[in-house]
Design goal:
single chain; alpha+beta; two-stranded antiparallel ribbon; 5 helices; 10 strands
Length: 221
């Protein structure tokens, strides 16, 4: 029986490698860091931040279906996910070029200056294939997307509170433990946690269990 299992794994691996050779992975993707069946959003934070970009500032994250031990199982059939939001310096910012020979008062039709920062989103989810008109693409677990961050100064007033004061969020098992201490169920249950400069917002879908904890994990309400 062990030989049959090894053979099945071997042929599946060959199939996957062949498929990837034909279609390839999507751009701006990576595999899930750590254990995909017990993914710890905090313990793996540095790997995620490195993927976001150099000098990235964490704004917050959203987790759907996290277990009481503070981990997410991407093998579960109910499709959990983690979405991190970062602010990253805009290294490719287009600079305004002034033609010195054109006199003052003449419009040079310059484009609006771009902000100094980008908003980068890292989504961690179950590895999967997606079909498009030109073929199938494999997403190995982490996906990066970016957009220009307008009103940078307003947002950056909040981001450093996480990055400099509380560089790593506290263990999410502690948040779960505190929720259990205040009446949340502890067995066969998952929760949703949203984290930003205001703290941790903990909810269990379909129930009345909703808690707001501060950045130290202490109950606010």
């Amino acid at each position: 029986m062990l030989k049959d299992i090894i053979k099945s794994v071997f042929y599946f691996t060959l199939f996957l490698l062949a498929a990837l050779a034909m279609h390839g992975c999507a751009e701006n993707t990576r595999g899930i860091p750590g254990d995909s069946r017990k993914f710890d959003p905090v313990a793996n934070f540095n790997a995620v931040a490195e993927f976001a970009g150099e000098n990235a500032l964490l704004y917050g994250f959203t987790i759907q279906y996290i277990k009481p031990d503070g981990t997410v199982d991407f093998g579960d059939k109910y499709d959990p996910y983690v979405v991190y939001t970062f602010f990253v310096p805009n290294k490719n910012k287009k600079r305004t070029v002034i033609d010195e020979e054109i006199p003052l008062g003449v419009s040079q039709n310059q484009p609006a200056p771009e902000p100094d920062w980008l908003q980068v989103t890292i989504t961690v989810s179950k590895p999967h294939w997606e079909s498009y008109d030109d073929g199938d693409v494999y997403y190995p677990g982490m996906r990066r997307s970016e957009s220009i961050l307008y009103n940078s100064e307003e947002w950056l007033e909040k981001a450093p509170k996480l990055d400099n004061v509380n560089r790593l969020p506290i263990s999410l098992s502690k948040i779960w433990s505190n929720a259990i201490d205040h009446g949340a169920p502890a067995k066969n249950v998952v929760a949703n946690i949203n984290y930003n400069y205001q703290g941790y917002f903990f909810t269990i879908g379909g129930t009345g269990y909703k808690f707001h904890f501060d950045l130290n994990g202490e109950l606010i309400n």
